[in-house]
Amino acid sequence: MDENGIRELETRLQQAMLASDVDALGTLLADDLTFVDATGKVWTKTDDLNGHRYGVQRIEQLDVEEQTVRVYEKCAVTVTRVALRGTFGGAPFAGSLRYTRTWCETGGGWRIIAAQCSLVPF
């Protein structure tokens, strides 16, 4: 996998997040995913998928502001700053977040095995 391939996976992920496409997200996330959100809460793949499946989180806008990609033999790390807007638990949110994702080649293809996001101050 090269940098362009990882960028394409990131684009597919962003599209799936915007559409709450649980099937696409299920393909891109490793079964043993660990995701730490901006509050420090740890999410599993099931938690993330259910958040989209049941409307707990809805992303209405996701604009990539900057992104770096580093590719190694069987893994890659992306650091992406995005402007987000949507709802979580029915409450509106908007802000700038920075995501760090670790993609690894697994038996089922390239998937996110770990991710973390943090708020970016204005």
From TrEMBL:
<dbReference type="InterPro" id="IPR032710">
    <property type="entry name" value="NTF2-like_dom_sf"/>
</dbReference>
<feature type="domain" description="DUF4440">
    <location>
        <begin position="6"/>
        <end position="112"/>
    </location>
</feature>
<protein>
    <submittedName>
        <fullName>Cytochrome P450</fullName>
    </submittedName>
</protein>
<dbReference type="Pfam" id="PF14534">
    <property type="entry name" value="DUF4440"/>
</dbReference>
<dbReference type="InterPro" id="IPR027843">
    <property type="entry name" value="DUF4440"/>
</dbReference>
